[in-house]
Structures are given as structure tokens and as C-alpha cells.
Amino acid sequence: MMQSKSQRQDLHVAIIMDGNGRWAARRGLPRVAGHRAGVAAVRRVVERAPELGIKRLTLYAFSSDNWRRPAPEVQSIFWLMRAYLRLDSERLRQRGARLQIIGRRDRLPPLLVREIERAESATVNGRCLHLRIAVDYSSRDAITRAAADMTTAFARNRPPGFELMRGMLTRALTADGGEVDFLIRTGGEQRLSDFLLWECAYAELLFTERMWPDFDAADLDRAFAQFRQRERRFGAVSPIVLLSPDSSSGGAR
Ligand code: FPP
Predict the structure, then answer these.
(1) DSSP classification of residue 252
(2) Which fold has domain 5-229?
């Protein structure tokens, strides 16, 4: 029988934290106020996640397309990240969290990179929660890089077969965080925006109208309760369909 993965306790949840700008605009505040309130939401979710059995949490903080934003906004997001890493890494360490930043580092301000390295090494032994924050991240770039690395590795030999290549790509792309079980996007939009495309192949998706700065522990609890209700078939048939007499057309995705 297909085991429903949603009962597992080592889940990987990914969140697209959207709506900071609109949250601020509705209050007549500058966009940066929305990002600042967004950091408070990050803290709430990071506190609650391990209590729900979430072992890996990946937050989309800055996509490679976000460089198109006005420079002062980009700088203020980086400033907030640096402050978060400086202020919160000790608490994260005490709570057994391991912090990792994924994405490109070569375009980030050197002071932010230094803070990232410090926070990562301070929390390297964390075992309760693997907290990944995606900064200057593009999933298409990550996939392309993994494919390019593979091509280089096989430059002088015959390329391996399709299945082997697929397995190698999967291993390269999921080595750190694994596949995503549940993806939440706040802010009302319903798209993936170049976030963990390979890793989300079988993720359950939840889109909520709630703006990220308003998202709290109770929202995470409600979202998670919905996730626990979902039946995950991974392309196979439901055990109930397997038992029914006219199940020959089963196998819905
Ligand atoms: C999306 O809202 C949010 C961002 C692009 C930035 C997210 C950054 C933070 C929450 C602060 C720093 C993060 C950490 C992890 C400490 P938006 O600005 O696109 O909102 P809008 O769609 O309403 O304009």
C-alpha cells in the first residue's frame, strides 16, 4: 500500500513569502516597513515549525529576479537580512536549528556574505530544524548549473543513460534539502516564481491571501492541518481506488 507521506514527521516545507509591499502600502508605509514586519513573521514561523514536525524549512527571501527592484529597496532587504543573522543566530543555535543560505553569493554585499558565513558556522551542529533561506536564488539557474557540472564530469566519456542522468540530477539538486513536501505561498498570487522547481515535483501546494507580514503561528497550524488532510499518491493510485471493482482507469495525478 502507498504510504501517505503527509503523516511523516521529517517534513520539508517551503514558503514563498509574498505581500510585504502591499501590506505596507495599505498602511501608507514605505515598502521597507513591510519587509521589516516580514522578518517578524519569519521569526514566528521558525519558532513554530519544529513543533509541527517540520524538519526542513526553506524560505524564499530574495529571488535572482528581485535585482530589478529599486536599489534602495534591495539594500534595505540585505540590511534586514544581515541584522536578522546577527541578532538571531545565537537563539537559532540554542534551539538546535542549522541555518543555511542557498543561492548565489558572488553578487551579495561582502558584509552580508561575512554574516552568512558566521551564522552558518555558528549553527552547523543544529539537528532539530534545517532552516534554509534562499537569497539571490533561481531554481532554473540551479538546475542549469547541476546539468552543466554533469556535462563537465562526462566531457571525456560517453554520457551515462537517461535514468542515471536523472538520478544524478536529482541527487545534485536535493543533496541539501531533499524534495519539498509542502509549499505555501502568501500574498494571493498562484505561481512558483522560479523557486525549487525540481524539488517541488510532488509537493502539495497551498496559496493563501494572507500577506506575509500578517502570517503567524496559527496560520501555519491551519495550513498544516490542510496538508495533513491531503492524500499523497505520487502518481500511483489511491489504496481505496485499488480496492474498488472498476479501478482500471485509476492513476490520477
Ligand atoms: C516579497 O514581498 C518579499 C520579498 C521580496 C522580500 C522578503 C524579505 C524579507 C521577509 C526580509 C528579510 C528576510 C529574512 C529571511 C530575514 P513583495 O515585496 O514582493 O510584496 P508585494 O508583492 O506586495 O510587493
Answers:
(1) -
(2) Undecaprenyl pyrophosphate synthetase (3.40.1180)
Strand order through the sheet with 129-137: 97-102, 129-137, 54-63, 11-16, 182-185, 204-207
Q: How far apart are CA 189 and CA 207, in angstroms?
A: 7
Mutation test of ligand 1: which of 35, 82, 189 has the most ligand atoms closer than 8 Å to its C-beta? 35
pLDDT tens readout for residues 61-86: 999 999 999 999 999 999 999 999 99
**Which residue is associated with the grid cell 496560520?**
219
The tens digit of pLDDT for each residue in 36-52 reads 999 999 999 999 999 99
Question: Is the distance from the beta carbon of residue 185 to the nearest atom of ligand 1 less than 6 Å?
Answer: no
Cβ-based burial of 6 (10 A; exposed 0-12, middle 13-18, buried ≥19): middle
**Segments making up each domain of the chain, as ranges:** 5-229
> Cα 176–60–150 angle (5° rounding)?
40
Question: Which grid cell sits at 42?
Answer: 519569519
- Taking the centre of ligand 1 as the mean of its atom positions, its distance from the CA of residue 16, in whole angstroms, is 9
The closest of 123, 142, 33, 32 to 85, measured between CA atoms, is 123
Percent of the chain predicted with pLDDT > 90: 79
Task: Give the list of residues 6+ apart from residue 58 with CB closer than 8 angstroms, or none.
Answer: 12, 13, 14, 15, 102, 132, 133, 134, 177, 180, 196
Between CA 168 and CA 176 the distance in angstroms is 14
The SS3 of residue 132 is: strand
User: Terminus-to-terminus CA distance in the chain, angstroms?
Assistant: 17
All three cell numbers of 37: 514586519
